[in-house]
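DM from R.C. (forwarded with permission)

"hey, sorry to bug you on a friday — could you get me a structure for this? deadline for the figure draft is monday and I only need the backbone to look sensible"
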Amino acid sequence: MRLPNLGTPADLEKMTLDQLRPGQTGRITTVTGGPALVQRLYELGLLEGTELELIGRAPLGDPLEIRCGSARLSLRKSDAAGISVCPLG
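My reply, with the result:
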């Protein structure tokens, strides 16, 4: 039996916040987007190195609800796509 090629461990770690599954946690590696968006995400506590959890998605998939520290935030899927994460669980 042959296993599917999942890529290297480095490839597996390259994902964005919108790709996490509900209940999965990750650590932010980079935040990208327009200057105003990045500033706003930083103000909300979404900094590189911060751990977060995807709580769930709205019925149509947008927005996403995340837990960052003790705060719960809702983000547009397009904004979450600019946040690179390293999955933790």
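R.C.: lifesaver. Confidence is low (pLDDT under 50) at residues 3-8.
me: no worries. DSSP finds three helices and six strands in the chain.
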